[in-house]
C-alpha cells in the first residue's frame, strides 16, 4: 500500500488518515527518551494531532523539549518515520484540532485533563518492504 498522493506531506496525511496511530518519542529535561502509542489525526496542512494527559510523562517532556519523532506503521510492510516539533495547542487552534481528532477517534478529547498537541514534521522517511525491490525515500519537509 504505497501512498498515492504525489507530494510528501499529502502522502503523510493520507497514511495517517488510513492508519490512525503511531508511536511518538519525546525527551525529558534530563535527556531520557520516552515513547508511547498515540491516536493520530492529520490536518489538511500536514500537521499531525494527538491528545495527551496533563499528568503524563509525554506532556511534561514536551514542556522541556518540543522535538519529537514518530513512527507510523501500516502492519503490511509500510512505515513512515518522522521528526519534527510539537506544540501544545491553545484557543481556536486547539478547538479546530479537537474536531479533527474527535472525527477520527471518537472520545479522544472528552477528558478535562486532555491537551491537544500538533506536530509539524521537518523530515520523513518512507519505507515499503512489501514490494520488490523495497522502497526507501527520505524527504525534507
Describe this protein's structure.
- This protein has 141 residues and is α+β, with helices and mostly antiparallel strands.
- It has helices spanning 8-19, 57-64, 91-104; strands spanning 21-27, 33-39, 41-42, 48-53, 67-73, 78-88, 114-128, 135-140.
- A hairpin with a 5-residue loop joins strand 1 and strand 2.
- The longest helix has 14 residues, at 91-104.
- The radius of gyration is 15 Å and the shape is globular.
- The model has no long low-confidence stretch (mean pLDDT 94).
What is the compact description of this entry?
The protein has three helices and eight strands.
List keywords for this structure.
3 helices, 141 residues
What topology does this entry show?
Elements lengths: L7 H12 L1 E7 L5 E7 L1 E2 L5 E6 L3 H8 L2 E7 L4 E11 L2 H14 L9 E15 L6 E6 L1
Antiparallel strand pairs: 1-2, 1-5, 3-4, 4-7, 5-6, 6-7, 7-8
Low-confidence stretches: none
What is the average per-residue confidence, as pLDDT, rounded to a whole number? 94
Spatial separation of the terminal alpha carbons: 22 Å
- Provide the β-strand percentage band: 35-45%
Number of DSSP helices?
Answer: 3
Number of strands: 8
Radius of gyration: 15 Å
Order of helices and strands: HEEEEHEEHEE
Helix proportion? 10-25%
- Label the overall shape: globular
> How many strands, which pairing sense, and closed or not: the largest β-sheet?
8 strands, antiparallel
Amino acid at each position: 500500500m504505497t501512498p498515492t498522493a504525489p507530494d510528501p506531506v499529502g502522502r503523510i496525511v493520507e497514511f495517517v488518515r488510513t492508519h490512525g496511530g503511531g508511536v511518538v518519542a519525546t525527551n525529558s529535561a534530563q535527556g531520557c527518551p520516552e515513547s508511547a502509542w498515540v491516536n493520530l489525526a492529520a490536518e489538511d496542512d500536514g500537521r499531525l494531532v494527538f491528545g495527551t494527559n496533563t499528568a503524563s510523562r509525554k506532556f511534561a517532556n514536551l514542556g522541556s523539549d518540543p522535538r519529537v519523532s514518530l513512527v507510523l506503521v501500516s502492519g503490511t510492510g509500510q512505515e513512515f518515520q518522522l521528526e519534527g516539533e510539537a506544540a501544545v495547542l491553545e484557543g481556536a487552534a486547539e478547538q479546530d484540532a479537537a474536531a479533527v481528532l474527535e472525527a477520527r477517534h471518537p472520545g479522544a478529547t472528552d477528558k478535562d485533563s486532555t491537551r491537544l498537541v500538533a506536530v509539524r514534521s521537518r523530515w520523513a522517511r518512507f519505507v515499503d518492504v512489501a514490494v520488490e525491490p523495497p522502497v526507501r525515500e527520505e524527504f525534507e519537509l
